[in-house]
Amino acid sequence: MSAKERLVYLPLGGAAEIGMNMYLYGWGAPGRERWIMIDVGVTFPSMEGSPGVDLIMADTAFIEERLDQLEAIFITHGHEDHVGGLGYLWPKIGGRPVYTRAFTGIIARHKLEGAGVDPSAVSIVEAMPEMVTAGPFKVGFLPVSHSIPEASAMVIDTPAGRVLHSGDLKLDPSPQLGEPFDPQSFRDVSGDGLLALVCDSTNVFSRDAGRSEADIVADVEALMKDATGMVVATTFASNIARLQTLAKAAAAQGRAVVLLGRAMNRMVGYGREAGIVTDFPNVVDVKEAASIPREHLFALSTGSQGEPRAATASLARDKYMGIELTKGDTFLFSSKTIPGNEVSVGRLVNGLAEKGVRVVEEDPRYHVSGHANRPDLEQVHTLTNPAFVVPMHGEYRHLKEHAELAQTGGRDAAIVPNGTMIDLSHEQGEVLDIVETGRTYLDGSVLIGAMDGVVRDRVRMALRGLVAVSVVVDEDDRALDGVWVELHGIPETHRGALQEDLEEAIEADLSRAKRADLKDDDAIADRVSRVVRKICNDQVGKKPLVTVMTNRLA
Length: 554
Fold this sequence. Notes:
Layout: E1 6-13, E2 15-16, E3 22-28, E4 34-38, E5 42-43, E6 55-58, H1 61-64, E7 70-74, H2 80-83, H3 86-93, E8 98-100, H4 102-114, E9 122-124, E10 131-134, E11 137-143, E12 152-158, E13 161-165, H5 183-190, E14 196-200, H6 217-226, E15 231-234, H7 240-252, E16 256-260, H8 262-273, E17 283-284, H9 286-289, E18 297-301, H10 311-317, E19 330-333, H11 342-354, E20 358-360, H12 374-384, E21 388-392, E22 394-395, H13 396-408, E23 412-413, E24 420-423, E25 430-434, E26 439-443, E27 446-449, H14 454-464, E28 466-473, E29 484-488, H15 492-511, H16 515-518, H17 521-540, E30 545-552
Parallel strand pairs: 2-22, 4-7, 7-8, 8-9, 13-14, 14-21, 15-18, 15-19, 16-17, 16-18, 19-20, 21-23, 28-30
Antiparallel strand pairs: 1-3, 1-24, 3-4, 5-6, 6-26, 10-11, 11-12, 12-13, 24-25, 26-27, 28-29
């Protein structure tokens, strides 16, 4: 290989955060690299930090500027934080082939169809030994166990050596649905050792070995047997193995199974379409559920992370499609709360508790993680024997802990947060560049950038309120009396007097303005805004956002 050519790694999302996964690998001379992308994920917004936003995705500006150098996109598995952004971001990064395994491909194709894009852009690839050639790269799908079928690590052959990108994985010998973890396959693809292991860090702080999906079956069956009223469970809709475990246990106790939420129905349908789900109990239409005695009903509900529009949130507030929880019912969170979602989930738990519902949450008897724990990560290090470890898929504290774990085992490692481009081929871990990265928001049906100011303005309005001012200027550039002020988000006790004071003060200020200032709408807005903010700060202790509308008479 040329001394000028190099193998680079650049995360755009998913490093120093959980969710929104998007990783780039490049090979070539600086500025002339050929690139591949691994995953196009989303994360979910909070009302506190991003009000009104529907989804959050990585900023793709870096690769958009080099789109002619992007060879292909590879998707490790079908979770939203790995494939959920594909349809939304396609106008920015599309035109390149997308490679997935069969089950993930069904999901990816539906994402593209939903965006009005030809789904034939998605090509289905069999598990290794099949490899896809993408420019200077050869890429293969290595099956791993996770909380969704057909999850894969990516084996990436480069002129500098082999890299293993783990995706999300756990070491589960009996996942109930999907492929079990096969340690020999990791040894086989690693040979005498990898150039680099880019590895999931989510559970690096969990010091006990990971548990199998099979470990919860008996406890789930016992819960269904002992419950007296209706039972509702929530988990990630994509965790089809868990859905099947819960549904089969309920059906064994004579409970009819109903699916609440579009995602639940979609994912079970996808599993059947792919031929993966063959043993799922019959499902009752939600419209028929009301006629079934409560003690004979079991529901799987979307919204385990507190999503405000999901079925679980509706059940906690009131009812969902005629189904209402009451005292004596049981609600099971067969899931773990993702960091950052604690407040949203807490609202659900409190709402359910107020109804008299028995709530079971964060109970290890009914949930096992889909990610490798600390001892499992050590085993992956041993199996693959990498010269270099790059932690990913975790907050900064996870990446730091995982890097230190690798170093304790005598391996080199580096902490590589979003936007950091490093060399994997020569001086491993050398920082080559810092790329500006940010976020792309789905706001209704529109994609907006983090720097567009839309979300910032919403947060400011929420914190400080809004004052709208209407000013009339005549044809001689003189401000007329009759300034109109409307207050939003200002305490009612101050509104009447404050509105009058503002109108009087604005009229007085404009009457003193020079004719040149009154010719300029921006100058008027600046004067009015200063007056409004000062008076509001003096009277209510807030400096609100101010919108000034200047109306000019012809």
